[in-house]
Amino acid sequence: MVTDEYPLTVHIKLPNGVEYDQPTGLFINGEFTKSKQGKTFEVVSPSTEEIVCSVYEALEEDVNAAVDAAENAFKNTEWATQDPSVRGRCLLKLADLVEQHAEVLAGIESLDNGKSLFCSRGDVALCSAYFRSCAGYADKVDGRIIDTGSNHLSYTRREPIGVCGQIIPWNFPLLMASWKLGPCLATGNVTVLKTAESTPLSALYLCNLLNEAGFPPGVVNIISGFGKTTGDVIALHPKVRKLAFTGSTATGRHIMKRAAESNLKKVTLELGGKSPNIIFNDADIAKAAQNMIIGIFYNSGEVCCAGSRIYCQSGIYDELLVEFKKAIANLKVGDPFDETTFQGSQTSQLQLDRILNYIDVGKKEGAQLITGGERIGGKGYFIKPTIFGNVHEEMRIVKEEIFGPVVTITKFETVDEVIELANNSEYGLAAGLHTEDINKAIDVSNRLKAGTVWVNTYNDFHSSVPFGGYAQSGIGREMGIEAFDNYTQVKAVRIKIDKKKA
After folding, report:
1. Dihedral-angle region of residue 192 (phi above 0 means left; psi in -120 to 50 means alpha; beta otherwise)
2. How many CB atoms lie within 10 A of CB 151?
3. CA–CA gap between residue 43 and residue 199 (Å, rounded)
4. Which of 103, 121, 154, 213 qualifies as a FRET site for 113, CA 20 to 30 Å off?
5. Do residues 406 and 301 make contact, with C-beta atoms less than 8 angstroms apart?
6. CB contact at 8 A, 163 and 70
7. What's the pLDDT at 4?
């Protein structure tokens, strides 16, 4: 829709009574602005299928304006060269502001994404914690002195890259924005961040907090738009020197090609997964069942590292399945603003249809539908938590990422057998295992081909612990000290010492 009349802010009252003003414009050079062509698109609440508002859509000329603002901030302000503690203070202030606005931000996520308030509040808490963690790193990005003998002084510097393009997904809009912005800003870079078209609202609200926290105009630019238009322009833009993307593996491949076609941008990718969750005979069955719930049904199953392949050792298979089904029966699916809801809606009609199609595929392939497998109600994108048994490794529901509340469960006998099953995947993002034997835990963790291994827990994140994948699950790491390597480049300086003049 093209209009010059749509406002840059709309007042929204959330279903839980919280009211706030929602920005709708493009955040460029510290201000909200309409797109140059006045084009907008609608944002739909997935739990009600009702239109929330419209936001302005960035096209090529808008991306160019955002990149120019970022480049100017990098070249013509002291953001990249000042005492790094100043950047740290901005990030600390931003963390405080996220906490102060926590209920509004959580409500926006539940409205826009469909996730339960339980999940949204967890996202907001992780977001503020990560900004605070990055603030602590800001003045600790350093180089080293290299001893090459007395005739030279050799040392390294870690310097910012410049203008970064960042493209975030729709499953964790605010949290993924923090994972991208935190290390980028702590190291003195500037950015143009594109929101996911289905969930732009929380990142746009964050823009007001960025201004209040003291980030100079142009350092952070946040725009809304679609992958094939806005995202592609960012990926191809010659002034963008670093590209960070979180999303599907298929799109990640496209992003890499675009980066190579333009200017060989540095690229980090956090992509898909089909993660195994292994339950051994000596596991605490009740705790394992709860971790299986968190592993696959948290955030409506829309988690890249979801434990979507459960492997259970034969000695406890029947008992665990009973406990798992009982836990699912107590899991409330529905209105994300109901304080007792655990699983909200899927994020879009497209994702709902994709999940239901995979459920049909599973049935046709001969898998046993143990529970779930149906849409709930006629309005809102809700699906019952679904378990498939009697599966084999070549079934699509075992091999392909579904990205929803659908899990397969397979029986195994030995450690060697389950290691082979778990590693039989094109992905390698995460894995879980449950055992009371520390020797087994260490041995199996070492043999799993995954970027993260959780032991007796699942989907358990911390700002200081890196996250990222093996194989087709991506390149680079989010969080931890490793994330800062993504946003700096190493300069070696070697000075010849003239001893005759000393």
Report:
1. beta
2. 10
3. 7
4. 213
5. yes
6. yes
7. 59
Contact 380, 371 (CB under 8 A): no
Nearest to 219 by CA among 187, 185, 195, 183: 185
Q: Structural domain boundaries of the chain?
A: 59-271+477-489, 276-463
* CB neighbourhood size of 487 (10 A): 26
pLDDT tens digits along 230-286: 999 999 999 999 999 999 999 999 999 999 998 999 999 999 999 999 999 999 999
CATH 3.30.420.40 is held by the domain 59-271+477-489: no
The residues carrying an active-site annotation are 270
Superfamily, domain 276-463: Aldehyde Dehydrogenase; Chain A, domain 2 (3.40.309.10)
**Could you give the CA distance from residue 68 to residue 36 in angstroms, rounded to a whole number?**
15
Q: What is the CA radius of gyration of the chain?
A: 24
User: Are the C-beta atoms of 53 and 12 separated by less than 8 Å?
Assistant: yes
Convert the pLDDT of each residue in 83-125 to its tens digit.
999 999 999 999 999 999 999 999 999 999 999 999 999 999 9
Mean pLDDT of the chain: 97
Question: Residue 156 and residue 42: Cα distance in Å, rounded?
Answer: 49
In the structure encoding, which two tokens stand for residue 342, read together?
A: 């655990």
CA distance 336 to 152: 63
Distance between CA atoms of 396 and 165, rounded to whole angstroms? Answer: 34
Q: Going along 122-250, which residue ranges are E strands?
A: 145-146, 152-160, 163-167, 190-194, 220-223, 242-246
pTM of the model: 0.96
What are the residues whose beta carbons fall under 8 Å from the beta carbon of 400, sequence distance 6 or more?
Answer: 274, 358
What's the per-residue H, E or C state across 357-425?
Answer: HHHHHHHHCCCEEEECCCEECCCCCEECCEEEECCCCCCHHHHCCCCCCEEEEEEECCHHHHHHHHCCC
